[in-house]
Amino acid sequence: MTLLRDAALAEAFDHGAGAYDRLVALNPGYHGQLRRSARRLGLPDGGSGCRVLDLGCGTGASTAALAATLPGADIVGVDASAGMLRRARAKPWPDRVRFVHAPAEELSRAGMPGPFDAVFAAYLFRNLADPDAVLGTVRGLLAPGGRLAVHEYALSGRRADRLVWSAVCRGVIRPLGTATGDRALYRHLGRSVAAFDTAPAFAARLGRAGFDRVRVLPLPGWQTGITHTFLARRPPERPGGAR
Q1: pLDDT digit string, tens, across residues 47-67
Q2: 10 Å Cβ neighbour count for 19?
Q3: I need a labelling partner for 56 at 20 to 30 A (CA). Which of 66, 82, 136, 156 fits?
Q4: Cα 17 to Cα 81: distance, rounded to the nearest angstrom
Q5: pTM greater than 0.90 (yes/no)
Q6: How many CB atoms lie within 10 A of CB 238?
């Protein structure tokens, strides 16, 4: 099966948006893991005075994690799926949270003003046709010294973790897709993990994109070895404006 990309993937998410929140709630620890990755950004003073971009915000689960852990930050959630964004916007939010409809690949054309003090991206990069281009855009949107946290299904590289993920796909993800009428979307979501970088490979990709202080942190529970938080930084400017 060819993975869904760009407009086809956005359309599939539009169709699946109505059931998405109910289905992810079946994943033990789903929201807690997002909050853990948001805390790992390590912004001081609850993000007071900071601007944070939630890239690929979907129905707002990652936005809620950021809002809870960074009560002082202004947060912009961005997603390519209009259907997912409708679900996000329908939820109650403080005034410091807003949403923008735009593909990650077209942030500059969407008039997204930088700089941001931090960018958070949950379950996004494995769904992109050109993750390197988006990493370049993210780096450009970050202020010098700005922080990136990527919360992503990226297998450790161990055979045991790949076998666990295959079992989850067969026993959970594919049946859910069939039951909801979103079979193509959920088959994509399962296969996109197996086709994506391993955790060490994605860390190396971040380094090639010009980020420093790259760290890979595991998440607890059944997702250990399957889901990771990747932390990185846009290097600060050196004296004289050099980078």
Answers
A1: 999 999 999 999 999 999 999
A2: 14
A3: 156
A4: 9
A5: yes
A6: 9
